């Protein structure tokens, strides 16, 4: 996971992560917590995730967890899926859809299609998701 060249990363502290977790009343996955410190708001050049069911899904960038972010992950969490608070967005597809942790199903990684409020399972962990990204 560390060999990727993330661009546009913004500073984030453990205290920032704790504030987010306090707001959502959930502890985020450990592998995500360890990596987001280094790659907060980071983007990869032309990255995508591929599945048999959906095909290639563009990956725009990681969500900025800082409170002063224009599009804050906590605010999105509160409104996604009609406010169910089931999905925490960690990444943007770039078209209004998000990569999320399914907080009701062991933090599995899912694609949340905003327009139709539909969810597609992608993989079990953040590490699996990042390792599954293709650049190019």
TrEMBL record:
Transmembrane segments: none annotated. Residues 11-132 form the Knr4/Smi1-like domain. It comes from the Bacteria. SUPFAM superfamilies: SMI1/KNR4-like. Gene3D superfamilies: SMI1/KNR4-like. This is SMI1/KNR4 family protein. The lineage of its organism: Bacteria, Bacillati, Bacillota, Clostridia, Lachnospirales.
């Amino acid at each position: 996971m560390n060999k990727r060249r993330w661009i546009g990363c913004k500073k984030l502290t453990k205290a920032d992560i704790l504030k987010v977790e306090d707001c959502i009343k959930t502890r985020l996955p450990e592998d995500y917590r360890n990596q987001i410190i280094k790659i907060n708001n980071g983007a990869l050049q032309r990255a995508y995730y591929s599945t048999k069911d959906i095909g290639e899904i563009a990956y725009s960038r990681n969500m900025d967890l800082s409170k002063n972010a224009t599009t804050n992950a906590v605010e999105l969490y509160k409104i996604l899926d009609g406010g169910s608070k089931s999905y925490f967005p960690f990444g943007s597809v770039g078209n209004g859809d998000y990569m999320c942790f399914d907080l009701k199903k062991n933090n599995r990684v899912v694609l949340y299609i905003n327009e139709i409020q539909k969810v597609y399972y992608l993989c079990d962990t953040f590490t699996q998701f990042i390792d599954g990204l293709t650049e190019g």
